[in-house]
Every structure is written in structure tokens, then in C-alpha cells.
Amino acid sequence: MTYAETNTNSRQINNNIFQVITTIQDYYTTYPWQKTSPTARYGYGINIGNGKILTTEHLVRNSNLIELRQEQRGKKIRAKVLIADPQVDLAIIQVINPPDNWPQQPQQLLAEIKLKSDLTILQFDNTYQIQQSKAQLIKISMSSLPNSGFASLSFQLLTDLNVNGEGAPVMKGKLLAGLMISYSDSTRTGYMIPYPVIKRFLEDTKQEKYTGFSMGGFMWMPLIDPTKRAFLGAPHTNIGIEILRCDPEYEASKIFKKNDVIIEMDNHKIDSLGFYDDPEFGRLNFTYIIKGHHIPGETIPVKLIRQGRKMEVQLSLTHIEDYTSLIPENTTGERPEYLVQGGLVIRELTGRYLQSYGSEWQNRISARLVQYYQTRNMISSKKGQRLVILAKILPHAINVSYQGYANRIITAVNSRPINNMADVFRIVHEDGGLRRITLQAVDIDFVLDKNELNSANIEIMNNYGIPALKYQKTIIRTSATTNNTNKQLTLKE
Q: How far, in whole angstroms, is CA 112 from its chain's centroid?
């Protein structure tokens, strides 16, 4: 390749890279009637043609304004979210009015890679010129994404560059290898969403309806204890994982039973830690079979052991929408439903709520909530089940005996068991008000004086600037990955 050709390729790649600036405004988690002050996020996106930019979902999540800037150009270009999927942290944004100099050649994707491959990370410096640095691929794994509760295929890189924004493109030659999603300056390593995930995402967005990525609809655990393996009839060799529970809304609940031992999936042996040998990337968690090699609606063979007997079943794969989970992530930043009565702030638990306590949230919040999130966040025991919590108590004379309680699971309202916030609203409406709540693992019920409740509510609204004592919504559920998500039909406040 001549110098002129190399220079032309570099210029084309540089023209395809954009700085993405988003203005974000979230709802407070413990004061869900109130919005935070606007903040800005800075990251990157890359041109994929037809006025569309590929970037990370987290960068554009819950954004009020999206603007783009090209290399060495001060003018900003407005854009809007076209489609976003928090389960793989990818999004496509559409430029509203592309300028005349819009790049004509979309960025092309890499097709294959090996460990220890040399890569290049591109980003803007403080003069808005493209800065590049060498990186090396050091690990391929199924990893939890840093900004949502989902796992996806991730590549870990070692680099000498301080990455200054998520979505920074990672190149191998003139081809896109992935987009950066996190970076640690202490270890000089970062993670990126790699080209196989991007390819699958882009292919899906071209369909009439975006289907998302596959899931199995069950929870599992490694099976390494030899005594338990013998009890379940698992092989003596290092093979097989144990089924813990299945989501009642999906097909897995019809074919799996608790304590089933999966030994093979889609003709790949699964070891006792849940790994298999992937033909392209080597040893990976078996969930990549489901999420990386298949799409929702496909069926794959599964060999298992049930009470010592070998059998084969057919698992129908599905796409699990966030709102069906026991603890939804609420990555889209929807305003949560809530009820405030006598200073008791009641709402459903979400991953977003937990993570609002900061990077060390596991140590700052109720251990019981952490345990629920870590062991069964996506799998409910019955359809429509959520965790309703007493998020906070706003101090007032009517609740003086209960102040200090927070982040506790509510199991009953007015002595009637509840399954979700819809039950709370229904019971309060039928009973003409909130009279008492029952908390999990608390010996006494919290009782509110019905004669004082109305006047106390008025004082609490005035003291704490609460515009409405409840927010209840009626919605149509569409795909949780499009910009038409969760259309509101009526709002009840």
C-alpha cells in the first residue's frame, strides 16, 4: 500500500469518528417525584451510513439532547436515538439534518481476531484532533456490562492510552474491532463490545422488528461439590451445571425442573463451572451459545440428567424484556411508580435504584436486597412479581415511631399480601387509604392513624415539595429496545 493510500484510509476513518455529547436528566430514586439537575456525558460514535451513528446505549440513556462533533470542527450536529439495547450496551442514533460534508463511506467491521492481536484505540485530544494509541487484546469472556445488569461477550484490552470516553472506536487496521465501554487507569486495561456483538445488533436493526438477543429464561449455578454431584446423579467427570429456577413466563419453565443437571447444550459439552469450548474464541461461559450463536425463537437441543436419568429436551430461546424481571434494571430511566402516605415512600425495587447508591452500593444498602439482586434479579416466582420496598420515611409526627427504616421489602398492605405496585394501588383504592404495611423480617406492622393521615399528607407535601402523593401509569408494552418503549396511555397522580 502506498503512502497516499494509507493517508486516504486514515482520513476516511477519521471522518467516520464523532464525539457524542448528551445531556442527561434522571429522576431521584428515593424522591421519585423530582428530577436531578441536568448533566452532560461525553463519548464517541462511528458512522455506519445513511446518517446513522453507532455508539453505546449507556451514553445516550435517558438523554434530553444529543449532539455530535467531528474532528477539528466546532459546529455541533443534532441527533436522536433510533434504537438502543441495554442488554448489549449498543445504540444507533440518527442525525437530524446531515451536513453537506457528511462522510459517504460507512465504517466496515472486522471479521475475525485472535488473542494477543495488536489494535488501535482512536479518540479526540483536547484540540479535537484524532489521537491514537496501541492496545493489545488480552482476554475474551462473557462479562457483566458496567452500566447494566446484563452479561455480554466482551474483549479486555491492555493499552497505554487514558481512554477519555465510552464508545471510543477500537480498530484493527482500517476495520472496526469494537467500541470501548470502560477503562481503568490504575490497571491500564479496558473492556470493549466486540465486532460479533455489533454485527448481530446491526443485522437485527435492519429487520422489520428488532428482536434483541436470546436468553434461556433460567438461573443456574456451578456444580463442583462431589457429594452433591453424586446426589443429583451427575457424572463423576467435570461435566454439568445445576438448574436453580426458571422464569414462569418463558418456555424453560416447561422443560426444566429444579436440580436438573445440564451436561450438553447445542452439541457442546458444559463443564461443572459452566464453560464450553467455543470454536472461534475458545473457553467461554455457555451463555454465549444462547446469546451469541442463536436468535430468539430458535430451538436448541439440551442434554440433561434428572434424578439420575439422562434425557434430551428442546429449549426454545426467547428475548427477556427488562420489565418482566423480578428486579427490572430500568436502564431507560423511566419515572418509577410511587406512593407517599404518612411520609412512607413506597415503590418497586430496580437495578437503577440499587446502583444509585454508587460504585460500592453492595456495602451501602440492605444485604437482603443485595442478595435478591445477585441471586434472582431476572427470575420471578410467579408472573408479574416485583419487589415492593419502603424506600424511605420522610420524618413527620405521624411516623415518629418508624423513622430510620428504609430499603425494606413490603409483603402486605392493609394486612393483604401484595405482588407488585399494582396491588398496592388497588388495595389502597379499595380500602379508602393506606392503613398499615407489613415488612419482611420485621416483627411489627407499621400502622398509620387514619384520623390524622389526610392532614399529615398535606403537611408532608408542603414540607418536602411533593407535587403529587402518587404516580401510577397505564402502559402498552412494546419492545424495550426501541424509542417507542412503554407508551403511556394514562397517568394517574
A: 27
CB 475 within 8 A of CB 488: yes
Domains of the chain and CATH, by start: 3-95 (2.40.10.120), 118-205 (2.40.10.10), 218-316 (2.30.42.10), 325-492 (3.20.190.20)
Handedness of CA 164, 147, 336, 211 (dihedral sign): positive
As given in the structure block, the three cell numbers for residue 394 are 420522610
Phi and psi (nearest 5°) for 199? -60, -45
User: Minimal CA–CA distance to 365: which of 373, 352, 354, 350?
Assistant: 354
Give the list of residues 6+ apart from residue 128 with CB closer than 8 angstroms, or none. 19, 69, 71, 72, 73, 74
pTM of the model: 0.84
- Burial class from Cβ neighbours inside 10 Å (0-12, 13-18, 19+) for residue 390 reads buried
Which grid cell is 194?
A: 466486540
- Whole-angstrom distance, CA of residue 343 vs CA of residue 325: 28
Alpha-carbon span 138 to 279, nearest angstrom: 18
Reported as a single tens digit per residue, the pLDDT across 407-450 is 999 999 999 999 999 999 999 999 999 999 999 988 789 999 99
